Protein backbone atom coordinates (compact mmCIF):
# COMPACT_ATOMS: atom_id res chain seq x y z
CA UNK A 1 0.00 0.00 0.00
CA UNK A 2 2.83 2.35 0.81
CA UNK A 3 4.17 1.88 -2.72
CA UNK A 4 0.71 2.61 -4.14
CA UNK A 5 0.44 5.91 -2.27
CA UNK A 6 3.94 6.92 -3.33
CA UNK A 7 3.00 6.23 -6.93
CA UNK A 8 -0.14 8.35 -6.57
CA UNK A 9 1.88 11.21 -5.09
CA UNK A 10 4.41 10.95 -7.93
CA UNK A 11 1.63 11.13 -10.52
CA UNK A 12 0.12 14.16 -8.79
CA UNK A 13 3.49 15.94 -8.65
CA UNK A 14 4.12 15.27 -12.33
CA UNK A 15 0.60 16.37 -13.21
CA UNK A 16 0.87 19.59 -11.25
CA UNK A 17 4.27 20.29 -12.80
CA UNK A 18 2.83 19.78 -16.28
CA UNK A 19 -0.08 22.12 -15.53
CA UNK A 20 2.31 24.79 -14.23
CA UNK A 21 4.43 24.44 -17.37
CA UNK A 22 1.36 24.70 -19.59
CA UNK A 23 0.16 27.78 -17.72
CA UNK A 24 3.55 29.41 -18.18
CA UNK A 25 3.58 28.44 -21.85
CA UNK A 26 0.21 29.96 -22.72
CA UNK A 27 0.11 33.24 -24.63
CA UNK A 28 0.78 36.22 -22.41
CA UNK A 29 -1.51 39.21 -22.16
CA UNK A 30 1.10 41.99 -21.82
CA UNK A 31 -1.30 44.89 -22.29
CA UNK A 32 -2.88 42.69 -24.93
CA UNK A 33 0.48 42.36 -26.62
CA UNK A 34 2.15 39.22 -25.33
CA UNK A 35 1.87 36.16 -27.56
CA UNK A 36 -1.56 37.54 -28.43
CA UNK A 37 -3.97 36.32 -31.06
CA UNK A 38 -2.37 36.88 -34.46
CA UNK A 39 -3.47 39.94 -36.38
CA UNK A 40 -3.70 40.04 -40.18
CA UNK A 41 -0.29 40.29 -41.78
CA UNK A 42 0.61 43.75 -43.03
CA UNK A 43 0.84 44.24 -46.76
CA UNK A 44 2.94 47.42 -46.72
CA UNK A 45 5.96 45.64 -48.18
CA UNK A 46 8.15 46.39 -45.17
CA UNK A 47 11.23 44.12 -45.35
CA UNK A 48 12.66 44.66 -41.89
CA UNK A 49 15.21 47.02 -40.40
CA UNK A 50 18.65 46.84 -41.91
CA UNK A 51 22.15 48.21 -41.55
CA UNK A 52 25.11 48.48 -43.84
CA UNK A 53 25.70 49.16 -47.51
CA UNK A 54 22.51 48.24 -49.36
CA UNK A 55 24.53 47.72 -52.53
CA UNK A 56 26.82 45.18 -50.88
CA UNK A 57 27.05 41.96 -52.85
CA UNK A 58 26.51 39.87 -49.74
CA UNK A 59 23.25 40.24 -47.85
CA UNK A 60 22.46 38.40 -44.63
CA UNK A 61 18.97 38.11 -43.21
CA UNK A 62 18.51 37.18 -39.57
CA UNK A 63 15.23 35.77 -38.23
CA UNK A 64 15.20 36.31 -34.51
CA UNK A 65 13.15 36.44 -31.32
CA UNK A 66 13.93 38.98 -28.60
CA UNK A 67 13.05 36.49 -25.86
CA UNK A 68 15.27 33.73 -27.27
CA UNK A 69 18.43 33.17 -25.17
CA UNK A 70 20.43 31.97 -28.18
CA UNK A 71 19.45 35.10 -30.09
CA UNK A 72 20.55 37.21 -27.14
CA UNK A 73 23.89 35.42 -27.00
CA UNK A 74 24.44 36.07 -30.69
CA UNK A 75 23.37 39.71 -30.41
CA UNK A 76 25.61 40.50 -27.45
CA UNK A 77 28.67 38.36 -28.18
CA UNK A 78 28.91 37.84 -31.94
CA UNK A 79 27.01 40.74 -33.48
CA UNK A 80 29.37 43.49 -32.27
CA UNK A 81 32.19 41.77 -34.19
CA UNK A 82 29.97 41.29 -37.23
CA UNK A 83 29.13 44.97 -37.20
CA UNK A 84 32.76 46.01 -36.92
CA UNK A 85 34.29 43.55 -39.37
CA UNK A 86 31.61 43.10 -42.00
CA UNK A 87 28.89 45.74 -41.81
CA UNK A 88 30.89 48.89 -41.01
CA UNK A 89 33.38 47.96 -43.73
CA UNK A 90 30.63 47.83 -46.35
CA UNK A 91 31.05 44.13 -47.10
CA UNK A 92 27.65 43.01 -45.82
CA UNK A 93 24.12 44.35 -45.78
CA UNK A 94 22.36 42.96 -42.69
CA UNK A 95 18.59 42.68 -42.31
CA UNK A 96 16.64 41.80 -39.15
CA UNK A 97 13.30 39.98 -39.34
CA UNK A 98 11.00 39.14 -36.45
CA UNK A 99 10.21 35.50 -35.79
CA UNK A 100 8.46 35.43 -32.39
CA UNK A 101 8.20 31.87 -31.14
CA UNK A 102 4.83 30.79 -29.77
CA UNK A 103 6.55 29.34 -26.69
CA UNK A 104 7.81 32.76 -25.67
CA UNK A 105 5.36 34.81 -23.67
CA UNK A 106 6.53 38.34 -24.38
CA UNK A 107 8.36 38.06 -27.70
CA UNK A 108 5.67 39.87 -29.71
CA UNK A 109 5.53 42.70 -27.21
CA UNK A 110 9.32 43.04 -27.38
CA UNK A 111 9.19 43.01 -31.18
CA UNK A 112 6.53 45.73 -31.07
CA UNK A 113 8.70 47.83 -28.74
CA UNK A 114 11.53 47.59 -31.24
CA UNK A 115 9.26 48.45 -34.17
CA UNK A 116 7.92 51.48 -32.33
CA UNK A 117 11.49 52.59 -31.59
CA UNK A 118 12.23 52.10 -35.27
CA UNK A 119 9.47 54.55 -36.07
CA UNK A 120 11.70 57.15 -34.43
CA UNK A 121 14.86 55.92 -36.11
CA UNK A 122 16.13 53.90 -33.15
CA UNK A 123 15.32 50.28 -33.91
CA UNK A 124 18.88 49.11 -33.38
CA UNK A 125 19.17 51.02 -30.12
CA UNK A 126 16.10 49.23 -28.79
CA UNK A 127 17.38 45.95 -30.25
CA UNK A 128 20.51 46.35 -28.14
CA UNK A 129 18.53 47.23 -25.02
CA UNK A 130 16.20 44.24 -25.36
CA UNK A 131 19.01 41.77 -25.92
CA UNK A 132 21.53 43.40 -23.61
CA UNK A 133 19.34 43.73 -20.51
CA UNK A 134 17.64 40.38 -20.00
CA UNK A 135 16.04 40.80 -16.57
CA UNK A 136 12.65 41.32 -18.20
CA UNK A 137 12.71 37.73 -19.47
CA UNK A 138 13.18 36.30 -15.99
CA UNK A 139 10.52 38.40 -14.25
CA UNK A 140 7.59 36.42 -15.65
CA UNK A 141 5.43 39.53 -15.60
CA UNK A 142 4.33 42.14 -18.10
CA UNK A 143 7.54 43.94 -19.18
CA UNK A 144 5.76 47.00 -20.64
CA UNK A 145 7.22 49.24 -17.94
CA UNK A 146 10.72 47.85 -18.55
CA UNK A 147 10.44 48.53 -22.27
CA UNK A 148 9.20 52.03 -21.47
CA UNK A 149 12.39 52.49 -19.46
CA UNK A 150 14.45 51.32 -22.44
CA UNK A 151 12.60 53.82 -24.62
CA UNK A 152 13.48 56.58 -22.19
CA UNK A 153 17.11 55.46 -22.01
CA UNK A 154 17.58 55.69 -25.78
CA UNK A 155 15.93 59.09 -25.98
CA UNK A 156 12.58 58.35 -27.62
CA UNK A 157 9.61 60.68 -27.59
CA UNK A 158 7.81 58.70 -24.88
CA UNK A 159 4.30 59.89 -25.64
CA UNK A 160 4.71 58.87 -29.26
CA UNK A 161 6.29 55.55 -28.29
CA UNK A 162 3.55 54.73 -25.77
CA UNK A 163 0.81 55.51 -28.28
CA UNK A 164 2.50 53.29 -30.86
CA UNK A 165 2.68 50.35 -28.46
CA UNK A 166 -0.84 50.84 -27.13
CA UNK A 167 -2.32 50.95 -30.62
CA UNK A 168 -0.31 47.90 -31.72
CA UNK A 169 0.62 49.92 -34.78
CA UNK A 170 3.12 47.42 -36.16
CA UNK A 171 1.61 44.13 -35.01
CA UNK A 172 0.73 43.36 -38.63
CA UNK A 173 4.35 43.83 -39.67
CA UNK A 174 5.47 41.36 -37.03
CA UNK A 175 2.88 38.85 -38.21
CA UNK A 176 3.97 39.30 -41.83
CA UNK A 177 7.58 38.67 -40.85
CA UNK A 178 6.58 35.55 -38.93
CA UNK A 179 4.60 34.20 -41.88
CA UNK A 180 7.52 34.93 -44.18
CA UNK A 181 9.75 32.84 -41.94
CA UNK A 182 7.21 30.05 -41.76
CA UNK A 183 7.09 29.95 -45.56
CA UNK A 184 10.86 29.42 -45.44
CA UNK A 185 10.33 26.50 -43.04
CA UNK A 186 12.18 28.15 -40.19
CA UNK A 187 11.95 25.99 -37.08
CA UNK A 188 13.86 28.01 -34.49
CA UNK A 189 15.86 31.12 -33.79
CA UNK A 190 18.20 32.58 -34.66
CA UNK A 191 18.13 31.49 -38.30
CA UNK A 192 20.21 33.14 -41.01
CA UNK A 193 20.12 33.34 -44.79
CA UNK A 194 23.17 34.43 -46.78
CA UNK A 195 22.23 35.75 -50.21
CA UNK A 196 18.97 33.87 -49.91
CA UNK A 197 20.52 30.54 -48.91
CA UNK A 198 20.00 28.99 -45.49
CA UNK A 199 23.16 29.26 -43.40
CA UNK A 200 23.58 25.99 -41.51
CA UNK A 201 26.89 26.55 -39.75
CA UNK A 202 27.55 27.74 -36.24
CA UNK A 203 26.55 31.39 -36.02
CA UNK A 204 29.74 33.14 -34.99
CA UNK A 205 31.42 36.26 -36.27
CA UNK A 206 34.33 34.13 -37.51
CA UNK A 207 31.96 31.84 -39.41
CA UNK A 208 30.25 34.74 -41.13
CA UNK A 209 33.60 36.34 -41.96
CA UNK A 210 34.76 33.06 -43.46
CA UNK A 211 31.70 32.68 -45.68
CA UNK A 212 31.91 36.34 -46.75
CA UNK A 213 35.59 35.88 -47.60
CA UNK A 214 34.74 32.73 -49.55
CA UNK A 215 31.92 34.34 -51.51
CA UNK A 216 34.01 37.42 -52.25
CA UNK A 217 36.91 35.28 -53.50
CA UNK A 218 34.56 33.26 -55.70
CA UNK A 219 33.19 36.45 -57.25
CA UNK A 220 36.69 37.73 -57.98
CA UNK A 221 37.59 34.47 -59.69
CA UNK A 222 34.35 34.55 -61.67
Describe the structure.
With 222 residues, the protein is α+β, with helices and mostly antiparallel strands. It has a single domain, classed as Glutaredoxin. Helices cover 54% and strands 11% of the residues. It has helices at 2-25, 69-87, 107-118, 123-132, 135-138, 144-153, 158-167, 171-183, 205-221; strands at 49-52, 58-64, 92-98, 191-194, 197-199. The chain has a five-stranded mixed sheet. A hairpin with a 2-residue loop joins strand 4 (191-194) and strand 5 (197-199). Helix 2 packs across helix 4, helix 2 (69-87) packs across helix 9 and helix 3 runs parallel beside helix 6. The protein is globular. The protein starts with a helix and ends with a helix.
Task: Summarize the structure in short.
With 222 residues, the protein is of the alpha+beta class. The chain has helices spanning 2-25, 69-87, 107-118, 123-132, 135-138, 144-153, 158-167, 171-183, 205-221; strands at residues 49-52, 58-64, 92-98, 191-194, 197-199. Helices cover 54% and strands 11% of the residues.
Number of helices: 9
Which structural class do the helices and strands define? Answer: alpha+beta
SSE string, helices as H and strands as E: HEEHEHHHHHHEEH
Q: How many distinct domains? A: 1
How would you state the average pLDDT, rounded? 87
Amino acid sequence: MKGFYLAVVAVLVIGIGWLVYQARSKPGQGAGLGAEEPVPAATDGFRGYAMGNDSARIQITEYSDFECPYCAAFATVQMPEVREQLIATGRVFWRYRDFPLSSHKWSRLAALAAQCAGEQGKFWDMHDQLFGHRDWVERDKDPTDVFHGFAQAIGLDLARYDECVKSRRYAGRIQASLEEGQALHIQGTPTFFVNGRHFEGRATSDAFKAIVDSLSAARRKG
